[in-house]
UniProtKB/TrEMBL annotation:
Keyword Coiled coil included in the entry's annotation: yes
Ranges in coiled-coil conformation: 25-113
The protein's name: Transposase
Any matching Pfam family: DDE_Tnp_IS66
Domain Transposase IS66 C-terminal span(s) in chain numbering: 497-534
Length: 548
């Protein structure tokens, strides 16, 4: 074949040979140019990754220095306490403990992200770890290789030793140590060593099992028990776990659970109707030992009152202030009905894609606040008329949307027409500065949004779903303190999303977190949705009933 080609070339004249040469030359030049372009693209991409890693390394270094500084300040204040039991010093120390806790947790979260991007980097050196206490009960789990012969040559396996590692786990009201034993076998045919793979852990090389991690997270975010207090509690069981260690656990767990929080956010914002609310969140202000006021926003998707079995969920978001730009950014992909209070930050959202559904609970509250101080025939009648609307809602709760709509049209609409006429007439009897007149103006100014629920069976009469979500995880605790930083606020919002959604689906939040943390490290990102609360509901409810 080669000789024939050469023979063919020999038969060509000079011009034909030149044309072939130039064509090949052009093809080669084009190929080289394409390769150069691809090389430049890869170099640019590598440089961008190097820059990102460099910035993350600088951030880690900066946080490390800050953590050491805070540790020194805590140590000094602890020393001062022994000399003077000053309440002011104790408060300042508590704030510093929380600030240090947040910094260490953020440090661990960033570090976990860097390790995920560059998994092949050399493992960092770790300080010597104290052995787990001997008094704790041990549960031995043996991981034997699959099969009883060598997978390379088929030779017989001979047991000659074990690889033993220990993991600290938490069960209700007690600790235990799970000892993972992996028998090692040597092949008698080829001397190959065979043993089962090491079991995965929620945190790579971490000491905490999923149950202990879930308990620490739930205690911190669900029960508002700071990590340094948890450390003192565990010490009473002769188990020493420093605040710094637990901060690392929480940071790494936050990184691990991030995709689940993102999936909840996506699910919540995909619905046709949304309940929204916000509440102040005290945040430590670095440098002066005082607190500033951040904001915790809640967005709830719950269609069960309309007889729809779409899983309910709540997504929390944190912001350092209450500017309207935050809900605008949170809801930039949402399309549908937004049920919220009269906060001005929501008003600019309403238009073509998002329409307002106001809350009768807020309108009723205006009259109720006046009534409990100075009851009058007007406030009494207003509360009775609004109460009649709620009585209808009690009857239709959980019914299909079309049935709800027909009942509302037949029974609630006439009551609303009469209520508006009564309010307009009553308003004329009061001074414009009267508080009762103000309550009436509040309702009349939002009348179209307040009565929209009778036009759509999917909508609710009020925004109680959002208020319940906030109360359940954030403001219903007498011992709720504050978060240590803006990063701590974002982390709290993420954990509240998981805890709140688990509760909405009838799950024990701690049991849910334990189950997820036991599986998520090995779960492909494409199947992360399998770990959402409603996809584990049947399994975990059964597990809870058996445990009870």
């Amino acid at each position: 074949m080669h000789d024939a080609s050469v023979s063919d070339l020999d038969s060509l004249d000079r011009d034909a040979l030149l044309a072939i040469y130039l064509a090949q030359q052009e093809k080669l030049t084009s190929l080289i140019s394409a390769q150069d372009e691809e090389l430049r693209r890869l170099e640019a991409e590598l440089e961008a990754q190097r820059q990102a890693l460099s910035e993350q390394s600088e951030e880690l270094h900066s946080r490390s220095e800050r953590i050491e500084h805070l540790k020194l300040m805590v140590a000094k204040l602890r020393h001062v306490i022994f000399g003077a039991k000053s309440e002011k010093i104790l408060i300042e120390l508590e704030q510093l403990e929380l600030q240090l806790e947040d910094d260490e947790t953020t440090h661990a979260e960033v570090e976990a992200g860097v390790e995920r991007v560059t998994p092949l980097r050399e493992a960092k050196t770790r300080s010597d770890r104290k052995p787990l206490p001997d008094h704790l009960p041990r549960e031995v789990v043996t991981h034997a290789p699959e099969g009883d012969c060598c997978s390379d040559c088929g030779g017989q396996l001979r047991h000659f030793g074990d690889d033993v590692s220990e993991q600290l786990e938490y069960v209700p009201d007690s600790f235990k140590v799970i000892r993972h034993v992996r028998p090692k076998f040597a092949c008698t045919g080829c001397d190959r060593i065979v043993e089962a793979p090491a079991p995965s852990r929620p945190i790579e090389r971490g000491l905490a099992g999923p149950g202990l991690l879930a308990h620490v997270i739930m205690s911190k975010f669900g029960d508002h028990l700071p990590l340094y207090r948890q450390s003192e509690i565990y010490a009473r069981q002769d188990v020493e776990i420093s605040r710094s260690t637990m901060a690392g656990w929480v940071g790494a767990a936050s990184e691990l659970l991030g995709p689940l929080v993102d999936a909840i956010q996506k699910h919540v914002l995909a619905g046709p109707k949304l309940h929204a609310d916000d509440t102040p969140l005290p945040v430590l202000s670095p440098g002066n030992g005082k607190t500033k006021t951040g904001r915790l926003w809640t967005y709830v998707r719950d269609d069960r009152p309309a007889g729809i079995d779409t899983p309910p969920a709540v997504w929390f978001a944190y912001s350092e202030d209450r500017k309207g730009e935050h809900p605008r950014q949170h809801l930039h992909t949402f399309r549908g009905a937004l049920q919220a209070d009269a906060y001005a930050g929501f008003q600019h959202l309403y238009g073509k894609d998002i329409y307002e559904t106001a809350c009768w609970a807020h309108a009723r509250r205006k009259f109720h606040e006046i009534h409990i101080v100075h009851a009058s025939p007007t406030t009494t009648e207003a509360l009775a008329r609004i109460g009649a609307l709620y009585a209808i809602e009690e009857e239709v709760r959980g019914k299909p949307a079309d049935l709800r709509l027909s009942i509302r049209q037949a029974r609630a609409r006439p009551l609303l027409v009469e209520l508006r006429a009564w309010m307009q007439k009553a308003q004329s009897r009061f001074s414009s500065k009267s508080e009762t007149a103000g309550a009436i103006r509040y309702a009349l100014a939002r009348w179209h949004a307040l009565t929209r629920y009778v036009e759509d069976g999917l909508l609710e009469i009020d925004n109680s779903a959002a208020e319940r979500a906030l109360r359940a995880v954030a403001i219903g605790r007498k011992n709720f303190l504050f978060v240590g930083s803006d990063g701590g606020g974002e982390r709290a919002a993420a954990m509240y999303s998981l805890i709140g959604t688990a509760k909405l689906n009838g799950l024990n939040p701690e049991l849910y977190l334990r189950t997820v943390l036991a599986r998520i490290a090995d779960q492909p990102i494409s199947r992360i949705g399998e770990l959402l609360p409603w996809n584990l509901a049947d399994q975990l409810k059964t597990h809870s009933s058996k445990a009870a």
